[in-house]
Amino acid sequence: MITNLTIEHFKSLQAVQLALGQVNVFIGPNGGGKSNLLEALGVLSAAAGGRVNDAALLARGVRTGLPCLYKSAFRSSAAGQAAHIFLGAEQGLVADRCGYEVTLNNPLKNPEPDWRYKHEKWFADTQVLASRSPRTSPSLNPAMGYAALRAVESQPGSPGLALLNTLRNFVIYTPTTPVLRGTATETQPQNPLGLSGGHLPDAVQELLKQRGSPAADASVLTTTQRHLMQVTQEALSLIDWAQSYGSAPSSQMALSPAAASAPRVVRFRDRFMLDGRNHLSGYDASEGALYVLFLAMLAGHADTPAMFAVDNADHGLNPHLLRRLMQRFCGWLLDNPQPRQALLTLHNPLALDGLPLQDDRVRLFTVARNSLGHTEIRRVAVDDRLQALAKKGWTMSRLWVAGFLGGAADEL
After folding, report:
1. What is the CA 222 to chain-centroid distance, rounded?
2. Regarding beta strands 98-105 and 341-346, do their DSSP bridges make them parallel or antiparallel, or are they unpaired?
3. Which candidate, 11, 90, 82, places its Cα nearest to that of 43?
4. In this model, does residue 408 exceed pLDDT 60?
């Protein structure tokens, strides 16, 4: 799990350092820099993978653009636009600390297809596994990551390699209703889910198969199967009109001509309708139900990346459903025997009321730009002041809207 993140000179993130938990929620006004944070991590992921170019960035959910749009260029900076972008991530404590950091550049006037590596360092404990600078001899290909090349020599399961793999498999999900319904094509396919929510029917089918039979004796289930049973049953409880859900071949469902002809579709059984008339496809069901399944699949599926982000994770959700879903989602991740680390951006205040912030593994951050335009990210600590307000009936959502937490739009 990544414990520390450093970003310098990336878009509105002039100088940011974060101590991350397992579930990390970022709130703040539009344009405050929440998506910039996720994309900085996406660029670091591409660098750890060995190439930083449009294809590598798109595969991780990063919006592509000209180099001048990535580098900070604040009016308040005496040096003007920054020459380089610095990104770094660490995991572990002082005794067993691992890390990867990189300085990247791409000329503004004549940009290359591949970003250029200037400095790079990959280390585990006190051992430097890979290091480069412009003065490295013999000279290295500036378009290729040196750590990625050295990684093939590392022993499987070593802490340094685990860190690098966590970084380079990171992706940003931005689910959209048309793709979740199957009426639009997934343009960024991944396993188990596309970055826009594609392949949801396949992920549902696989997860239900992995969990085993609901009628099985709990004593014979593995730890993973018991966790999957929890995820699938609690997801169903959040969709209050559904008796069950699953997936089915498109040929077995009554689909509107407007629906895409995908091989499989998500299938719900409406508990209020007559048998034989109570099967709904993802095309006909509510978008909230699809978002519930999407997050449940991310939290439970064995192939979900060890570290991922969901941008605008509250999109399309009723506030009360969102509050319950955030509570469940945190539980699904924290209880998973296969650890997952998540970063979520949110705009709906009710989401905060579902976060178990008394658990240090769940962390809330406010994101806003200061008077110089720099994005500032601050952790919201559940201290004595907030606890005293909570005893008086103040919820986290009310505290945010009232300006007690920071990161509110009216502070700009």
Report:
1. 27
2. unpaired
3. 11
4. no
User: Cα separation of 85 and 40, whole Å?
Assistant: 9
Residue with tokens 């280390």: 123
Contact 158, 133 (CB under 8 A): no
Q: Is 182 in contact with 259 (CB distance < 8 Å)?
A: yes
Q: What is the pLDDT of residues 135-181, one digit of tens each?
A: 887 789 999 999 999 999 888 888 899 999 999 999 999 999 999 98
Rg (CA), the chain: 22
Residue type, 87: L
Examine the pLDDT at 307 and tell me if it is beyond 90. Answer: yes
Distance, in Å, from the CA atom of 398 to the CA atom of 412, rounded to the nearest integer, reads 19
d(CA 18, CA 38): 12
Q: Which residues pair with 98 in a beta bridge?
A: 91, 124
3-state SS, 356-377, equals CCCCCCEEEEEEEECCCCCEEE
Q: Residues 50-55: contacts with CB within 8 Å, 24+ apart?
A: 50/144, 50/145, 50/147, 50/148, 50/149, 50/168, 51/114, 51/143, 51/144, 51/145, 52/104, 52/114, 52/115, 52/117, 53/113, 53/114, 53/115, 54/113
- The CB-side HSE value for 276 (13 A sphere, CA atoms) comes to 0
Farthest-apart Cα atoms in the chain, separation: 75
43, 67 Cβ separation under 8 angstroms: no
CA atoms of 86 and 196, how far apart (whole Å): 28
In what order do the strands lie in the sheet containing 279-281?
Answer: 242-249, 264-270, 279-281
Contact 156, 162 (CB under 8 A): no
Query: Residue 367 — φ and ψ, nearest 5°?
Result: -130, 120
d(CA 100, CA 183): 40
pTM: 0.94
290 vs 139, more confident: 290
Instruction: Give the residue ranges of DSSP H helices in 13-145.
Output: 34-49, 54-58, 67-70
Q: Look at residue 410 in the predicted model and tell me its pLDDT.
A: 45
